[in-house]
Known about the structure:
It is a single chain. By secondary structure, this protein is of the alpha/beta class. The protein folds into two domains: 2-221 and 399-415, Rossmann fold (3-Layer(aba) Sandwich); 233-396, Glycogen Phosphorylase B (Rossmann fold). It contains 17 helices and 13 strands. It has helices spanning 11-14, 18-26, 40-45, 59-63, 89-102, 107-117, 129-138, 151-166, 175-183, 193-196, 262-274, 308-311, 324-332, 347-357, 370-380, 382-396, 401-415; strands spanning 2-6, 30-35, 49-52, 121-124, 141-145, 200-202, 217-219, 243-247, 281-285, 301-303, 317-320, 337-339, 360-362. The chain has a seven-stranded parallel beta sheet, sandwiched between helices. Helix 13 links the parallel strand 11 (317-320) and strand 12 (337-339). Helix 5 (89-102) packs across helix 8 (151-166), helix 6 (107-117) packs parallel to helix 7 and helix 13 (324-332) packs across helix 16. The two termini are 13 Å apart.
Amino acid sequence: MRVLIAVFPTAAHTLPVVPLAWALRNAGHEVRVATHPGLAGSVTGAGLAAVPVGGAVEAAELTDFERNPGLRGHPGGGLAVASGDCPDWGAKWFRMTRVFAGMRPLLEELTGVVVRWRPDLVLWDPFCLPAAVAARLGGAAHARLLWGRDNIAWLRARSRRYLRTAGDGAWHDPLEEVMQQLLEPYGLPYEEALLLGQWTVDPLPPGVRLPVPDVRYESMRRSAYGTGGSVPDWLHSRPTRPRVCLLREPDPWGPPSGPDGGEALAELTDRLAEFDGLDVEVVAAGFGPAARGLDLPGRPRLVDGLPMDQLLPGCAAVVHRGGAEAFCAAAAKGVPQLVVPSAFWDEEATAGYLARRGAGLVLDGGRPGALRTGLSELLDDAGFRARAGYLRQEVEALPGPAEIVPVLERLTGLHQRI
């Protein structure tokens, strides 16, 4: 069958689709990845066929709360949803729909691709609603391909529940305007599947999942994929001291750091200062080329672009902000995690799940000495390593990309409109 994968215009959303795309190709299917022209090189560099779309759209413009006029003036840039409770859900749902609206320029291009190429299945990023509309017009089966927790489906369910109880005229759902702009040009009626997919592929363990009714989830183990950095010679040998990976996960939607490193270098030096005096080998990953050549505290090893499945097996601990990519990569290798969570999307949720499983520690990064104390505890208590091993078994039990391909084939046959 033919499969089109449509992603949000940023590398943090484009690179994670590569393992599934290759699993589909290895099973004999034709695969194309629709992404921003600026990211087409990342797709072709992975040996996949890229379809450049949306040259007029930039991720930063969609999610930067100063540059996007639909978001400006609405404080609280995070779109995180706490389990079972989100008092500001209405504001977050509004901001979410503004991101949807920003993807509107992709509609004609994606529709043209689908109508001409005629894919059997369209897998789309949960923000890329034009891909769902294009699939509907082309008769293709379609499903969302998540990269993190499903905050969108939860907020949609919360808004619908409010509308049922508040009565007519109490609140205007901002989704209506977005869907009207997408559907009216083609005379299509609204279907909930155009927002939530005919089914949803979820790369996180089910225990992280939000309670959402009427959404069919298919679990898929998230596989690590990087940009192809070379494996350094020192990584072939076992470390003589506990190796700690300090992993930077930049804001996946925010503007990149400037050429001088800016925020990334400030974070790196602050973290390294907290490790001062600990007998550990620090590997700093993802802080950019600006860090090279600097006289950094503790003289850490610096790597960029190296897939996490190559770096983490020799690590005694990994320190990160709680993003899904870092959480899944460390869990898959049984590495204890020290998380100082941000609160943008699902970081607090993955951190909470990690703590409940006893496979790591969650810290308040604003408390002086917390990182040093937490890391010492993590390294000294062998129980964390054992429980991280149990978490690894839990993750390994999820179907990998190759194992989910038959599921996608079957569901495509059920949902495709010939």
